[in-house]
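Lab notebook, bench 4. We co-purified these components, and the gel suggests they stay together. Before we commit to crystallization screens, I want a quick structural picture of the whole thing.
Request: model the full complex, all chains together.
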Amino acid sequence: MNKIVYYFRVSLWLMLAIFVGFLSWKIVVPGGKIAYVMAAGASDDFIEQFEPLDRLTVSDGRIKINGNPIYFSLRTPRPFDKLRLTVKYKPAGQPLIAIGLLKNRAAWSYEVKPLYNELINRLYHSADWGIIENDHTLLLQRREKYDSLRQFLAKPPAPTSTAVYDYDAWQRPAQKIDGNFSLAESINYLITNYQPPKLLPDGYYESQVEFDLRGAERDSHGYKLMVSLPGWNEADAAVEIVAIKAELSGKTWREFFKL
Amino acid sequence: MKLVYQLNQELFRVMLAGNLLFLAMELVKPRSVLAYLNGNLWLVIWLISGIIILTSKTPTEDYK
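Here is the predicted assembly.
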């Protein structure tokens, strides 16, 4: 056989084998970590199925939301344990944006986490409120009485002066501010797991939300997610999402085989 | 001309094997291949390669 033909044959089969190996690697994810991105010019095929179509428009990785709520799927080749979503968006005057993960299809129950909360953002950047940050927890105090979160939790103030927002560990009575866009004068302390978004130089906001995927519903389209706009009305401008990055982590091949 | 025919035939075979392999992978894990590969482009190249083989004058003994 001609040497050129021989080398051509070997290189073609080698290329096919390398490509199949690459695909298998992407299916199995042996390292346990993978990231998918949906953004203008960099969209892959894993963040998909945005619906219902009468509530949104999708073009070149950008989503304009003009209805509430909207749903989408995160298609994964296998189950994962944790999901960190990074969303770049423009709230367009919307005071509250939340993102949810479907936990129970039969009950249509979503675990909802705040992505953007105008009220807390305002307090966070206000000079009138002191801030204590501890890992993922934020303590805002109108009168700076506490030096640390531990001190606050050990000796909490009266329930009438404390507000709780997206903070499940709080077992004591307190005011809830879900859905309220103003804070009563009597509230001097606010505890939350909400992380205010970063304002990017191009005028967009970027927020991160983490979900525990264990126990979440996963079908042939993957995990089901929702973007909710509490308090939205038709006269509002469309909320725009320009990028979604989904970072997934799960079992590595060593953990899978219990090595 | 004979060399082009032979190279084209190699390409056709590998792409055929790829087609079958990708089909099997897609049946087992939908979108696992098409998320990374433009299936239409693959099929068009394979089709062109097949047409060239069919329309070329087949070399006889000396190919073997």
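Chain A has three domains: 1-30, 32-116+199-256, 119-192. Worth comparing against the SEC data before the next meeting. The helical segments of chain A are 3-28, 118-125, 149-154, 253-256.
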